[in-house]
Write a structure and sequence with these properties.
This protein is an alpha+beta fold. The protein folds into 2 domains: about 1-85 and about 125-170 and about 255-305, no CATH class; about 90-115 and about 175-250 and about 305-355, no CATH class. It contains 16 helices and 12 strands. The chain has a 3-stranded antiparallel sheet. A 3-stranded antiparallel sheet has the order 10-11-12. Strand 11 and strand 12 (about 335) form a beta hairpin. The N and C termini lie far apart (about 75 Å).
Length: about 400
């Protein structure tokens, strides 16, 4: 039954138009368009200009309070009940400072217009996220894209640009990553060659990226922006955003983030974009006078990435005196961190001069080879004989 529900949800998400979707909601739902927020700063964006009832108390403290509007939402909610939820992942602060990459990463995030997005400190709510995900829909109408969702059983409609601003991305960010190829000379093959010595494939590994800052940014993208099941890989959209960071191009990942979020419902990865749902809720003002259950700030709900994670992925190692090294499996070079000379915006090349190691020679003798050797030895010595049994006495 769960398998059939997942298939129905995937089919529903594949539909590009949700024109009939809005008619399924009750007449008392509220629809608000925040298109007027485009030219205001983030501080001003925290309070929507649309007047809202100040005395209304919104409550979401149990899953039974989530209103389900149709079969799709019921099936999605049933799947989400079986999922694990958490706050947004982040790097361990001491570890990041120890690498010497924190400031370089901040510079890259500022260059791409993500400085306000990257500081994710909001607490996450499992219930609020469940309601948001089951009601999330994207509608394309000509040149305009709108995002539909519900919070506290209130319906909201926000233009894609304003949704991007609500998440913390700069208002001048381009919204379509495909424009990188059309207007900024992005080419997947040449870009991968510029940051790696490995051939391009559908599963580009983060460990193949040379520059330490780009490596950490790629890992952060796989953890926070597009949280997916295998954080060792760098997806095609993530390659585009690494390019934008390196080239100082303001580009919002809002489109690909929404796509990833919709896939989370039937996915296997923990749902840890809960903090961003809280950020959206605060942006539109629904947390005022609200009673909502947030997840605790404990290790069980907040995963922090440190040196051990990178050591397991063969990307780093610890040296004498608590020193740390950036590793390149299969190559003859390691980089001791911090290494200011490899700063993202100061290097002439994003690849390192390295030679591949020669494969070590190993014995290929296996059980069959050893068995054959014993047989040859017995053939030379002769068949083994057993001593006759000793006579017994009555």
């Amino acid at each position: 039954m769960i398998g059939k529900a997942k298939e129905r949800i995937k089919r529903a998400l594949s539909k590009s138009s949700r024109s009939s979707w809005s008619s399924s909601y009750s007449r008392d739902t509220m629809s608000v368009d925040y298109g007027h927020h485009t030219n205001v700063s983030r501080d001003e964006e925290e309070t929507p200009a649309v007047p809202r009832p100040r005395l209304r108390i919104r409550v979401l403290t149990m899953v039974e309070q989530i209103a389900v509007k149709n079969d799709y939402e019921w099936e999605a909610l049933e799947l989400l009940k079986k999922q694990n939820f958490g706050h947004a992942k982040r790097f361990e602060t001491r570890f990041l400072i120890k690498t010497g990459l924190k400031q370089d990463m901040n510079n890259a995030l500022t260059a791409v217009g993500w400085e306000n997005f990257a500081d994710i400190v909001e607490p996450g709510s499992q219930l609020l996220t469940m309601e948001f995900l089951i009601s999330l829909a994207i509608e394309e109408t000509g040149a305009e894209t709108k995002v539909y969702f519900r919070l506290f059983n209130e319906q909201f409609v926000i233009k894609l640009k304003d949704f991007s601003i609500a998440l913390g991305f700069h208002k001048r960010c381009i919204l379509d990553p495909n424009e990188l190829a059309k207007k900024h000379r992005y080419d997947r093959n040449s870009w991968w060659s510029a940051i790696s010595n490995e051939p391009v494939s559908s599963k580009n590994s983060i460990v193949s990226i040379h520059n330490p800052t780009l490596r950490f940014l790629a890992k952060w993208l796989a953890m926070v922006v597009h949280p997916h099941a295998d954080p060792r890989l760098c997806s095609l959209p993530e390659l585009q955003y690494l390019y934008a960071m390196a080239k100082h191009i303001r580009c919002s990942p809002v489109r690909t983030m929404l796509t990833y979020w919709q896939k989370m419902i039937s996915g296997k990865s923990p749902i840890d974009m809960t903090s961003l749902v809280t950020r959206i809720a605060r942006y539109i003002g629904v947390l005022e006078n609200a009673e909502v259950t947030f997840m605790p700030e404990t290790e069980a709900f907040r995963y922090e990435v440190g040196l051990e994670h990178f050591m397991q992925g063969h990307m780093m190692r610890e040296g004498p005196g608590n020193s740390i090294f950036m590793c390149y499996p299969g190559y003859d070079r390691e980089i001791k961190l911090p290494c200011p000379s490899l700063s993202l915006y100061s290097v002439n090349s994003l690849t390192l001069q390295m030679e591949k190691k020669e494969p070590s020679r190993r014995s290929v003798a296996g059980p069959q080879t050893r068995s054959r050797a014993r047989q040859n030895q017995q053939a030379r010595v002769g068949p083994s004989s057993q001593a006759p049994p000793a006579p017994t006495t009555a």
